Amino acid sequence: MENKKILIVDDDYDMRIFVSTVVETNGFEPLTAQDGVEALERAKSSHPALVILDVMMPKIEDGILTYKQFKTDENLSSIPIIMLSAIAKKTFLHSIRALNPQKSDLIPDPEAYMEKPLDADELASIIKSILKNKK
1, 56, 98, 132: most buried by Cβ count inside 10 Å? Predict the structure, then answer.
């Protein structure tokens, strides 16, 4: 499997280190961002194969709005995203639906959703599965 860049977006330094370690030990190149603005800039300049995005971040550019920006940007919308959060998947999906004012302009669900605390083996398995299916 070729080396691929994976963008990790989380405001928590320890979580960025943990996820970066999982990514790197599985043969991928981790890139990090601590908020949505930085994430979008890094994605546009480095073209990651995958984004791992935290839902709850303190700035206005939180994970839900960042996710929407990724999925509505024609240059970024094809990048698969794994959402990470301490909130339930159902709550996140409800928030995404609320951002869809017209049914014709639906924002797709993320490729995967993992609730914290993360299991390193499960995260590695999901990353490999998504990137294998992307080819």
Answer: 56
**Domains and their CATH numbers in the chain:** 5-134 (3.40.50.2300)
Percent of the chain with pLDDT over 90: 67
Question: Quick one: average pLDDT of 116-123?
Answer: 95
In this structure, what token pair is assigned to residue 9?
């977006």
Can you say how many angstroms the Cα of residue 9 is from the centroid of all Cα atoms in its chain?
7
The pLDDT assigned to 98 comes to: 76
The pair phi, psi for residue 21, each rounded to 5°, is: -65, -45
| Distance in angstroms (rounded) separating the CA atoms of residues 7 and 4 | 10
Phi (first) and psi of residue 83, to 5 degrees:
-90, 140
- Sign of the four-CA dihedral 94, 39, 58, 86: positive
